[in-house]
Write a structure and sequence with these properties.
The complex is a heterodimer.
Chain A: H1 20-27, E1 32-35, E2 41-42, E3 56-59, E4 64-72, E5 85-92, E6 95-101, E7 110-117, E8 123-129
Parallel strand pairs in A: 6-8
Antiparallel strand pairs in A: 1-2, 1-3, 4-5, 4-7, 5-6, 7-8
Chain B: E1 3-10, H1 20-35, E2 44-48, H2 60-66, E3 75-77, H3 83-96, E4 102-109, H4 116-123, H5 129-136, H6 140-155, H7 159-173, H8 187-192, E5 195-198, E6 200-201, E7 211-219, H9 220-226, E8 231-240, H10 255-268, E9 279-281, H11 287-296, H12 305-310, H13 327-331, H14 335-350, E10 365-372, E11 377-384
Parallel strand pairs in B: 2-3, 2-4, 9-10
Antiparallel strand pairs in B: 1-7, 1-8, 4-7, 5-6, 8-11, 10-11
The chains are: A mainly beta, B alpha/beta.
Chain lengths: 130, 385
Amino acid sequence: MIVESRELRLKHRIPVTKTEKFWKGLEEGKVYKTICKCGRSYYPPRADCVCGSETEWVEITGKGVVECFTVVHSIPSGYEWSKPYRIVVARFGEVRVMGWSEEEIFVGDEVSLYTAKDGSGVWKVWFRKG
Amino acid sequence: MKVGVVGVGCSKFGQREVTLQELTFEAVKEALKDANLSQEDIEISVVGCVGTRGYELMPAVVVNEYCGFAGKGPLRVEAACATGSAAVYTAFSSIKSGLADIAIAIGVEKMTEVDTATSAAIGGRAGNYLWEHHFYGTTFPAYYAMHATAHMAKFGTTERQMAMVAVKAHRNAVKNPKAHFQKEISVEDVLNSRTITYPLKLYDCSPISDGASAAILASEKAIKEHGWDAIWIESVGFSSDTSNMTMREDFVGLKATRIAAEMAYKKAKIDDPLKSFDLATVHDCFTIAEIMAYEDLGFCRKGEGGKFIENGESDFGGKIPVNTFGGLKAKGHPLAATGVAMVYEVVKQLREDAGKLQVDLKHYRALTHNVGGTGHFCWVFIFGR
């Protein structure tokens, strides 16, 4: 015999004030990493370096190289609106960037990044070949 | 102060229509009986439960009360899929520190009370929600699938080799009445099953299972007093890695495993694992995970894991039988229960009490390897008789 629990809906208010430049940047077609004078680079970006200093914002440009990818067919809750999607991780110099791609991209391919909204209206990083 | 395992218990894994606490008691009862103890003898209870899929959001006291341990702790621990090992480590530490002589480590998970899409969304949060799942819908299989594409590209590892891991797991599980899956499968069955997240197919993935397991640990002093034939914890190693997958060193292995193994081997003075252990349980939540584990644990060189399974080296009669009870892949992977169930398996094996799945013992030593998330946590324990 089974009984149903009472429904509990969790939707969080996430403060992104310290990384606002990144979130605003996506809407302007820019993807930022942060760097510190101690030599560390961060992507995802963070305002605080582990050394204790504040980091600086630097745009990621140029070509990246794909290190791994997958195509998600078993869609998680929250992404019901999407058809199967390709997640790609590419290296851009000191940092790696995760993104989606609508092209058939494989390990070793050279890619460039751009930003666009996904089907749920969230701005994010996308990759195209070359 | 040496610490040994004196009692073990494990529930049947699978879709279980009992509550979290009822399921736990199945394992606890068996462990108490195995050690010939009652609840009063236990000084500290450690409850491992990831708990993110259950309706009891703070499950430790619920479990503790039902098992008759109210007043004995509980300490609740969480380390994603390595929660069970974190529980064993905490019980081990409490004895090592002299705070207790007898402690119980419990691992329990109810995973089948929510639907699969919800479960996938929760599993996809076993990393860094804000920077990965929020934007890109990463799922737990997707994280391992990305390691698979990197491993395939760099070393030529094939989907067929990955399928062989699943075939071995199912073949062992049919002889383990507590395993979730009770049927053998072929390489073709795996290759023809539907894609979950490329290149992983349904049969490359561990199932969504409920399960509980328990291990009672005791100090050398208590072991002598009770006259137990204990299985000793000879060594433990642990490590962790970044929450963001993009910040890892590489995607062809798990650094946390390499560091944890190195720490455990060093303490136990192990030079060659293949000449030191009679068996190993490794964290095969996905078939690629077992292939990477062979390499990261030093059973073969990096990149040769595919050949290792293909040549039968991890099967009965091979260089080191791996996951003799069916592994996470076929026995089931109820997150927190997994790490303690690994202890259950090696204790049964080292006592020569593993029935049809018994391995031949030469070294009287075995290894457990339990990963949390995608190498976010790792524990390696070495047990000896």
